[in-house]
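Re: beginner question about structure tokens

> Can someone show what the tokenized structure looks like for a real chain? I only ever see the sequence side.

Sure, here's an example I had lying around. Input first:
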Amino acid sequence: MNRLEPPPSILARAKVLVDASLREAVDSLHPGVRHMIRYHMGWVDAAGKPDARGGKAVRPAFAVLSAEAAGADASVAVPGAVAIELVHNFSLLHDDIMDEDRERRHRTTVWALYGVPAGIIAGDALMILAFNVLQRRSGPAGAEASRRLLLDTGGMIAGQVEDLAFEDRPHAIWDECVAMEEHKTAALFSCSACMGAILAEAPRAIVDGLAGFGMHVGLAFQAVDDLLGIWGSPELTGKPTSSDLRQSKKSLPICGALEGGGPGRDELATLLADFRLRGPREAELARAVHLVESGGGRERTETYASDHLRDALEILGGLPITPAAHDAFADLARFLGRRDH
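And the corresponding structure tokens:
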């Protein structure tokens, strides 16, 4: 199967619009954290030499498109797009520490390279910087954008708390996992999808509609991420095979299999408990993958992702936004709901 790629023009245009402001913001940080963050962003290698890696800029693209959807120039969204990208990367830095991931985007993670304390401080610096950037936008729109980002960042942190709590439980039911992922991932997608519209002072109906669209896209995105966390190719994801099972994470496929009540449920629960205590052996890991799939976890998660992608596109189709922004949003949503990396 050919590798599925994101819509190039949408993401490339967002990167061009946001990159200079994003780099300027990072360059304003204390020298003690600046290099680590530039490394994390993929701009330089560990020695400080220029590099050309980095994320896809999906959330900034959503912010830019939402300004255009409201009939404003894309530049209106730049402060919000930068702030959201900084919050997202703050969460990645802390995620890597909590999950003990030593590799991201095929490179050593910040904490593994510089130590846990340095990784924590780098993440904290990005979160504070995000709100400093956004608060430079004066007036009611700037205040509303800051309030929205603060609310959804708080939701993301709540989701992290719930995710951590699940790790020590033998079972987590499907609905609990959905609620956790709504907080941890979908909230920031919702914020991204309406941020540009807020800064463009769009009507409330457009802001709320785009927020709902983004929430559904975020839920589909995380469901696909959960599938890739078990069945994704390491060459594409940059993570080890079956990474979520190795960490005994309560992702949607695992919760679906445990809740399904199939004949392998108890065996799967026992394996996950053993993995938490001593780590998995490769044969046990392969067995756990089989039990998740045979228990219906994969199929249920695939259906869930498709349902939320459908719901997102239905909301989008009912909004009075520009045709170009509608088509770009739809293309990006379809990629995120069906991607392989």
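Each token stands for a local structural state, so reading them left to right follows the chain. The chain is about 75% helix and 0% strand.
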